[in-house]
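The pair is set out directly below:
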Amino acid sequence: MPTELDNALEHIISELTKEGQPFETAPYEKDGVAIPAFKNAPPTLAHYFAHFCNENKDIEFLVDGSLRITFGETWSAASCVAHGLVSKHGVKKGDRIGIAARNSINWVIAYMGVVMAGGCATLLNGFWSGEELAYGIRLAECDLVLADAGRAKRLQGTEHSAKIVLFEHDVEPSIGLSDLWEQGDTAMKMLDQLGPDDLATILYTSGSTGQSKGAYSDHRGVVSGVFNYISQSAMAKVLLESRGEDVSAQPCALIAVPLFHVTGEVPVFLQSFGIARKLVLMPKWDAGDAMKLMEAESVTYFVGVPLMSYEIATHPNRDEFDLSSCKSFAAGGAPRPVDHVTKIKNAFPEAFPLLGYGLTETNAVGCGNFNENYLAKPGSTGRASVPLVDLAILDNDGNPRPQGEIDEVCIRSVANFLGYWKNEEATKAAFTKDQYFRTGDLGYLDEDGYLFIVDRKKDIIIRGGENISCIEVEEAIYGHDSIAECSCFGLPDERMGEVPAAVFYLKEGAEVLSEDTLRDYLLSRIAPFKVPLANHIWISKKPLPRLGTQKIDKRTVRTMFAADLIKA
């Protein structure tokens, strides 16, 4: 039976989406299928920025070390970047402009400037190696890449044709973005030229085919995803007010996830304009530093991959900090172990753990499990996010499965991406005939509509929120001349959720190859987070077991070599 909280939230969102209300919905037809869309949403991200930065112009928005700027100052800076991109670098509407950098105020302004100039914000993974960055640039056909010094150095000597424009962190935007900076009216002019069907973003997602794919979205999709989160926040605000709680303080979130990930981009960064939320940035994750910032800035909302809130809850110095302002400890990007839920609640009895489920391809929109409902069903990712999400469990032919039966989790909403850049085959395979996106996750819905994910179709490891393609790691291992066979798979890890592991078998007559030597070799070819630790690499003395299809039997390999670690 639906809980009291479920019923209350359903009533609130039904009121907020009625005719004449802020989140009124109207049917939008996509490929012959009518789906709900927000009637009053801005047509593009550029319009969204212009409206809310003006409405909240004097409210503090971004805190980054000693730098602090308001919404109005942020928009003014982004306007200078937008004009500079066009006047200095010839950017045209629809151009893919890469951003390769760590989190900072200037990353935020670079993103906004690209969009406000009419470009497509192409979010390169800041953890990638130089070759991986170059591949992402080539794939999206970027002519221009905005990079910090660290990423620019990685790109030296790699194969790509993009112009690299350097920008700095930890300095005023006019200094850090000086090569992009010019006063002008491009941003205002583009408001008359940009529409919801124009290209907005490309984010990269690891898939079972190895190399990353570029998931591209139009403005309608991204804005819809953002507004769905804003409607959820409005719903929560109404609920808290009905319970007599004071919600008058400015909301404040600590950004502890990369902004180039959809979790950092949509529900954290982009949503904040619509709810006038202050964002506190930290360049690198450290639980102790996070708690200092949470106390100093009165952070009300924490979101990160599951291990982050767990590290705060179990930190030996936790009691030295006043974290009472933080009422929500949210997680996304990876499953949260069930025992973490209880530990977080016990550590912060006046707050609640939350869990979200969304994907790059859905612009982070999917399901959510909140407060007492999450405590009651800690193994669930929650119910479909209203009012946009149509959640279904479908078989390979796109037919619905009965309640309680396990099959592929599929999501249909106006927030879904359009496809994979220059990959029609993958795009076609990603959708059913009725426009449901196939997530690649296996799960079931219980009698109350709560989603439980039990496995993944996709051969993906999720390490602390970072997707790692097993095939990509295997391809890197096969690059070594001594390797005859190999298999990569994930192992459970209390801190990171999962970590990569690998087994290899040497060619006949090849020189002995140690685990450490193979690890060093892999570190020269792929990003460090994708490389198994030496104690998670095993040498097989005989060929690896195979299935009837002659594919390596990954499940058996995993059991043979890592049984003790799996049990642990």
